[in-house]
Amino acid sequence: MAAPTYGNITVDGGLTDWTTRDRLDIVPGTGVSGYEVYGKYAGNAYVLAIKSASSSSDPIGADTTVWLDTDQNANTGYQVFGFAGGAEYNVNFFTDSKPYLYTGAAGENYVTELLDYAYSNDGKTVELAIPVSLLNGSPQAVNLLIDVNNKVFLPGDYSLNKYTISANKILPERTDFSKQVGIVYSESTANQFFSKTAYSHLFMGMQYQATMAGIPFDVLTESDLTDINKIVNYDALIFPSFRNVPLSKVDAIENTLEDAVYKYGVSLITSGDFLSNDETGAVLPGDPYRRMKELLDVTRTGGGGPVNSTVKIHDYTNPVFQGYTSNEVIRNYNGTYYSTFGGVANQATVLADQVIDGQTYNAVLATTTGGKNVHFSSEALMGDNNLVWQALRWTVLDNKPSVGLNMSRNASIFISRNDMDQSMYVDEVSRVEVPLYNTLVEWKNNYNFVGSYYINVGNNPAQGEVTDWSVSGPLYRNYIALGNEIGTHSYTHPEDTNILTPAQLEFQFNQSQLVIEQQLGIDVLGAAIPGAPEGLSIGQELQKYLSYISGGYAGVGAGYPGAFGYQTPDSNMVYFAPNIAFDFSLIGFQKLTAQQAEAVWAQEYADVTRHTSQAIIHWPWHDYGPTSFEPGYTKEMFTNFIARAYNDNTEFVTLADLQQRIRSFEKAKLFESVNGDTITARVDSTDVGKFSLDVNSNQLIKSVNNWYAYDGTKVFLPKNGGDFTINLGATQDDVTHITALPMRSELLSLNGDGTNLEFSFVGDGKVALDLKALNGLKVVTEGADKTNLNGEILEMSFNTYGQHTGRIRFTTDSPPTVANAIADLNVNEDAPNTVISLANVFTDPDDDVSAIAKSIELNNNPNLVNARIDGNNLILAYQPDQFGTAQISIRATSNGKTVDDTFNITVNKVFNRIYG
Prior knowledge:
7-stranded antiparallel β-sheet; Rossmann fold; 5 domains; alpha+beta; TIM Barrel; 9-stranded mixed β-sheet; about 20% helix
């Protein structure tokens, strides 16, 4: 007799039909060691499989009971042990070890004949099916409790957990296999946070961490978490802080996250308490940490404060802390509150410790549930330090050789914000903005430095607060010609934008934007907020007019550092918070000397770039700083800071440029797979010509199939992305390839064959190439204003900004040739010296004629004539009283190839008449 079949499940006592997605006991705390529970709705029945995998356990048989809560209300129905379940039905294995359906207590009220079932040969696995038609109302979901042989109880604690099978729950398939992360903004948590602006900083800080990890992101809402269709395509979810959750959505969010974690293997990265309180701050009913335990396998174990604490590395060998050293201090915190957390069902891996009064507590934990998770003990620890990006790489890229999408080809990105406070004072432009321009020319020449400059228009001509566009207009156009950006700093520089009405904000920023655009003939994309740090509401209002804003400073103790991105999920404007102190804050407010201010900047720079992958440095300063307009500042303090970043291989870009890169990064798709020493990657985008693929490996990029723009660790991307097969190894293949492109340049296309190469880009500056071994061949270049070849390293210089095409060809080197042969000479004895110009004697079809070297290869009668070359002239000096013939050969040498020009000289004897 054939085994009964329900959907794709054949009830035959085997588990081959079941997958890990069908496991009911995979959630921490719901399983029992040595047992497996599977369940699904199939063929109009609730189908179960129970396995006892322990060699010492008994076969499954009589007194095994499956309790069915068919109305999913634990307060109705039979109470197992008097307190749990609320079961409307139970399946009881009778003394014959066969399953029958009952109501009431176990085996109390008989309902139907024998259910379909089957045992494995050893009796330790049983499958059974409960047709939904046997259950009153044909319930579309049931909760389950199981006891095996009246000895083993699944899940382990009936009061805390249950299993659920849904009839109408059809889980979607993942359709997008690109590497991507979802970053969740919890409005409920933001409203209960100490500051919504600070929560926004934390939210943006996680976006910044995603860019450092090189994994494109989406920003999500609490409502998105109620729909598994919106979650299935993410590799990981980041919750900057998710303590609070709407009570009306908590069950839906819990169910979605449980499916995401256990059905799709989505990893979670979060901090502090997780899904423990409602939107009012009230603790959720029951065990408030139940959801942490289920999803993260972590629970709160204590806390207190205020205290002083030191956070340091516990496990520096873990990939999350790659690059750290044993016991390295991450940060010291003074006068703060703390929380401690620990693992639940499985042993959590401790990655970092917090030491308080000599006691050591967990600070960062790693766990594995459905995916790999990282939990930080506090929002400060998560947000203040550059820790999340490596956690992301570990959870998403699995610590294998991998690639990340970088927004630059350089080591870091530097955005300079200059608040041109003096720009609206008509009498001060010549004293500040003109000398500032001269300094900018110097910095551009020395460091390729560019930045963003924000001007005030002025609205009080009687007091000299106005812009004379006949003077300032040409000046600002010169700023722009250097590659800089002009934005608005407002109309009249209000000291506190937080007290302005929407109409006043519109005047200050939209109207000033329109005036600047009209006067300079440009698009103004962004603003730098003047005065006091602005609240979240200012950005929400200004996004009506601007593509981006640069706001108040954000750092440890002042919000959270690295606030770059979208302030909320519904923002369409990119926000930047400076992470380097304002020059005025140090000199004008704190009264530091220039040397002390430099030291502060140096430390901040070290903190911002420490343990990062392509850090963003956002540096705010004022027009009066380097121009000697205000006392205390020096030009050197600014120059030295720029030089430091330049020497560290930063890329200087404008804020307008970076905000567009952030938008493109968020929208890009990155696919990758690894097979041994080969990484196959694909980037789907139409705007990544300034980007690179960062290879995370202990080996070099050996080669890239049919692509010839990369250095040792980065593949340079063209504007429209594409497919890249990256081969890793100890040394690079000998092929012609681009090794560096100018800052801010956009690579459009590239074609090559490993020897010859053609590329197009937009920008200006030097393109560096490593050429294939010449082996006697000649390199011919086209398109550049200047080239310099040093061995096999070629530099091609493109002097003006625009679209350029460069070409490199290897050809057989043609030797020089004789263009104008030297005619034979006939002179008389003791003739004066003959001077012959060699400038036009030789030519070279593929080399610089002026580089041809000339030498005397043959003079077969030096007793007749002395031949020497002086510069480009051949000088023939005839020996006295000598006559006869001589043959002279002049050799031309060009790039190792030679040609000779030979001519004859006849010196005639002169007979002197003797008179007697």
